[in-house]
Description:
Blueprint: H1 5-19, E1 24-30, H2 34-42, E2 46-51, E3 58-64
Antiparallel strand pairs: 1-3, 2-3
Amino acid sequence: QGRGIAGRMLRAMLAHGRTLGCAVAWVLTDETNEAANALYRSAGGREGADSDPGNARLTGYSFTLSGEGG
Length: 70
C-alpha cells in the first residue's frame, strides 16, 4: 500500500475506456475499504447507491469519461 499502484491502474482503466469511446465507467468496492473509497473519491468518482449482493456491502462509483455527461 502507499505506492500509487491502484491509482495508476485506475487512471489506465479510465484512459482505456475513453479510447474505446465509453461514456461512463463504474467500480465497486467494499464499503469498509477506506483506501479504495478515498482513491475513487479523489479521482472524481461519484458515489452511487450501495448494494448488498449476499452478505457483502458494496459502494459503487461512476466516472464520466466523455464530455456528454454520461
